[in-house]
């Protein structure tokens, strides 16, 4: 079955450590996204990538980094510079290439819950 | 700056009732509006996508409408079932020149009582 796989489901880290969240998709989608979800707040965009070897900052990119070396993979690193890293992280993908890009629904993974103490 | 609001934040209804969830947005310059469902501890599942040129979309017991001029969308769920219990989120796209960047509302938590 085609889909998006995020791993691990739960992740625990000590403050000051960098941690990398995995996101893999086999939907052949061009665009991939990382969102953060906090209680009582809507999803907020961290980074997105519309094509391999290219990515753009979202609304809350500070303290995060990404890479897009392969179409299928879009890992997110939460660095020690992120002040409030504890959250639920969601990866998504969509078709990007025209003419579908404006009306392509997002497909989401099941998320990674990161707890930093 | 685009802002998306969903009211109510939580809703409880008895099984079999028809219900409406509301979504409002401040900037009518959108490409589309999407409704998602989120089960506890899970990712989001896309339910319906309404393009800016459309007025409504239907899928099974779900019907979503869009009124761009007033900045409103509704999600109508017919004959609700306990399995419909989840958080429902709406999101709009088309801001900042990146057509696939979405702005999300905070969601409506729906509980359907058997």
Overview features:
A: mainly beta; seven-stranded mixed beta sheet; 47% strand; globular; B: 114 residues; mainly beta; six-stranded mixed beta sheet; five-stranded antiparallel beta sheet
Question: What can you see in these coordinates?
Answer:
The complex is a heterodimer of chains A (117) and B (114). Chain A contains no helices and eleven strands. With 117 residues, chain A is mostly beta strands. With 114 residues, chain B is mostly beta strands. Chain B is 0% helix and 56% strand. Chain B contains no helices and eleven strands. In chain B, strands 2, 4, 5, 9, 10 and 11 form a six-stranded mixed sheet that branches. Chain B has a five-stranded antiparallel sheet with strand order 1-3-8-7-6, with no helix packed on it. Chain B is globular and about 40 Å long. Chains A and B meet through strand 4, strand 5, strand 9 and strand 10 of A and strand 4, strand 5, strand 9 and strand 10 of B.
């Amino acid at each position: 079955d085609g889909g998006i796989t995020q791993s691990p489901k739960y992740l625990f880290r000590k403050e000051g450590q960098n941690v990398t969240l995995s996101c893999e998709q086999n939907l052949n989608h061009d665009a991939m996204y990382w969102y953060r979800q906090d209680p009582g707040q809507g999803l907020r965009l961290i980074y997105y990538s519309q094509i391999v070897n290219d990515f753009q900052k979202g609304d809350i990119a500070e303290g995060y980094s990404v890479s897009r070396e392969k179409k299928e993979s879009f890992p997110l690193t939460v660095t020690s510079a992120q002040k409030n890293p504890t959250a639920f992280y969601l990866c998504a993908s969509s078709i990007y290439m025209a003419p579908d890009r404006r009306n392509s629904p997002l497909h989401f993974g099941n998320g990674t819950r990161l707890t930093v103490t | 700056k685009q802002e998306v609001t969903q009211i109510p934040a939580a809703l409880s209804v008895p099984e079999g009732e028809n219900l409406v969830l509301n979504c409002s947005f401040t900037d009518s310059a959108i490409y589309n509006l999407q409704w998602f469902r989120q089960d506890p501890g899970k990712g989001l599942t896309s339910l319906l996508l309404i393009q800016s040129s459309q007025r409504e979309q239907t899928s099974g017991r779900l019907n979503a409408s869009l009124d761009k001029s007033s900045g409103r969308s509704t999600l109508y769920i017919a004959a609700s079932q306990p399995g419909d219990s989840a958080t429902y989120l709406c999101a709009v796209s088309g801001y900042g020149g990146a057509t696939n960047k979405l702005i999300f509302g905070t969601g409506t938590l729906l509980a359907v009582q058997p």
